[in-house]
Design brief:
With 268 residues, the protein is α+β, with helices and mostly antiparallel strands. Helices cover 38% and strands 12% of the residues. The strands form 2 sheets. Strands 5-4-1-6-7 form a 5-stranded mixed beta sheet. A two-stranded antiparallel sheet has the order 2-3. A hairpin with a 6-residue loop joins strand 2 and strand 3.
Length: 268
Amino acid sequence: MALLATELEISQATAYRLIKLFRTGGTVMSLVDRKRGRPEGHRALDDRREEIIRTTISRYYLTRNRPTVSQLVRDVQTNCISAGLKPPHRRTINARVEEIDLQKRAKRRGENETVKQTQAVTGVFAASRPLQVVQVDHTKADIFVVDGETRQPICRPWLTLAMDVCSRMVTGFYLTMGAPSRLSTSLCVLHSVFDKSAWLREREITEAWPVAGLPEILHVDNDADFSLPAVASRPPRAPAGRTASCRLLHHSLGRHRRKRKRPELSLP
């Protein structure tokens, strides 16, 4: 075992652990992707201190008085000292707070704005006919463009996608190395509006893409590149959900962004 540990440049204890993992898993994959540190869900505190933290959070932190985390930490540490126990670290107390569901936490503390943000939007936004509503959104693609010679990564490209709400068909897109701008939005809409036949022939694509034409309404985000004079803000009480194009982008590329109010642009 000493020779094996020396050859692998690890300690004998680590070599024994690796052998145990291999025998338990049965394959070499059991040795891959092992996370460092404590196992997930591991608790280092004893039951008495965990109970003090739980009780203090429930009785004093999750109230309409909305005490700060700093006040909670002081209360927990004072209660532990009074019980003759070593007070836990601030990070430990904060971690126990973060484990509580955000919506439940907000309701108990009377944080109405957070409750609204975490509640599901009721109803379904739908269109009755194709091109009645087209939604546009951006995301950074989950790929890297590399240099053709050095193979060094250059950047992740940005994808702007337009989608018809009624048919759920992608009506156009634009891929760029630069950050989203009015130009990338305009070129995406241009690609969405025009016939795709010539575009498909140039790329020797035989599949059909039967979509073209001006949308009646264009749903966009509140990013700076969408801040055009012709864009009218959404009514204050209208539901602020994710657009169809946004959901497709997040599902396909793993991108997550905050919900935002979406203006809409009516085209003549």
